[in-house]
Input
Amino acid sequence: MHELSICQSIVDSVCEAVPEGEVLVVTLEIGKLSGVVPDAVRFCFDACTRGTRVEGARLDVVDVPGRGRCGSCERELDVNELVAQCPCGNPFLEILRGRELRIRSVEVN
Amino acid sequence: MCATCGCSGTIGGETVAAVAGEEGRDLLLQEDDEAIGHAQDQVHIDDQVRAHVHERPHPRAVKSKHAHLHKHAREHGHAHEHEHEHEHEHEHEHEHEHEHEHAHANEHEIDEQEHAHDHGPARAEGTAARTLQLEKEILGKNQLLAERNRGWLQGREIFAVNLMSSPGSGKTTLLERTIRDLAKQAPVSVIEGDQETRLDAERIRAAGARVVQINTGTGCHLDAQMLRRALNELAPAPGSLLFIENVGNLVCPALFDLGEGARVVIASTTEGEDKPLKYPHMFRAAELILLNKMDLLPHLSFDVTRFVAHVRLVNPAAKVVRVSATCGDGLPEWYAWLAERGASVRRTA
Output
C-alpha cells in the first residue's frame, strides 16, 4: 500500500510549505497512469494528518487523464491504462501525460 | 511541461517533454493544458532570465495574479512580446469547481537582468483563507534523495542493481548463486529489504557477501532514505557490485526510485504468464527481466512465448533472460549482462 507513504509525503510537504496556520484544503493532481489510486490516498489521508496542522483538511483530487504518443505513427491519443495499443497496431506508447503526482495547492487560514 | 510558458518538466521521474532553447519558441509550446502556473523560480533549459505576469479574470471576483521568474542562459540584447491563448481546466478550493477558458497576455521583457516581481496568491472573497499554489511533486523528496544516492554510487563506481519481484520468485536463491559465482572476481555486497526477519540476510552472508538487512515493518517497499542509511552502514567497496533486494511486491517498489544503476524484475514460471499485464508499472520500470525456475517448465503449463509477448506489450525495450537459479541454466547470460552494464556505469562515472 504505497498510498500510505504517498500520504506521509504529502503531509510532510504541506507542513514544510505552510509553516503556520490551519490547512483547510489540500488539492492534489493524480494522473491516471501514476500507479496511485485516489481512493486509497483518501483512505490514508485522515490517518496521516492526525496530530498535524493538516488534520481535518479537505482533500480534493484532480484526476489527470492519460495521453500518449505512438512510437510508430507518432499519433497522439488518450490512454487511461499503461497497456494501450495505437490504432495503427503498435502496442507501445510514449506517455506524455497522466503520471502526475503533485500537490497543486493548499488553502490555509 | 509548464502550461504557462512551455518550460520542460518531469512527471513521475519520466521526462515528458524537453524544449530546446530556440529563441522565442518555448512560449508557443502549450501541450499540457492541465497545469496552471508553476514554482516562482523556474529555470529554463536555455537558461535565460525572464519574468511574466498573468492575470486571469474570474467569474466570482476571485482574482489570481501571479508572476514568474525564469533564468535563461542565452543573453538577449532585445526585448520582445508574446501573446497567446490557451485553455485551462482547474479546480478552486473554495466550494466551487469549474472549467473555464481564459486568455493570458504575457509580456516578456528579456534582458540580462533578473526581474523582481510579486506573487499574489488567490484569496477567497470575504474570508481570511488563502490559497497557495504549491505545484510540488509528491515524491519530490524521495527523488532528490535518490539522485544523491545515484551520485554517491557513481562517484565510487559502484553498480547498484535493484532486484524486484513478487514473493517466492526465487530472488534470494538467485542472489545466493550469483554471489557464489561472482564473489571471487569482484566484491559483492547486498542490501536486503524485508518486512520482518533477518533470515535472508543470513542466507546471503553464508553465501559470502557483506549484507545489511532493512526491515520495513509495515512498509511494502524500500525508499531512497532507507537506501541512504543502508549505504552508510554497509559502506560498499569502490568499484563493487551491489544488489538491493527490494521487498517482495510487484506494485509499490515500482514507484520509488532508490538511485540504483539498473532495475531488474525477477518473474518465475510458477507464476502466471500474464504478470506483466497485471503489473505494468513494475515491468515497464525494468531494464532486464529474469524468468526464473526454467528447470520446472516440463511440469508446468507456463507458456514462455506468451510471457515474452506480454513483456513486449508493456516494455518493448526490456531484455528477457531465462534462468534457473538452482540448476544454473542461463546464468552466464545474466552475469554477462551484469558485467556489461557495470562497466558502462563505471565508464560514465
Chain A is about 25% helix and 35% strand. The beta strands of chain A are 23-31, 58-64, 67-70, 76-78, 93-97, 101-108. Chain A has a mean pLDDT of 92.
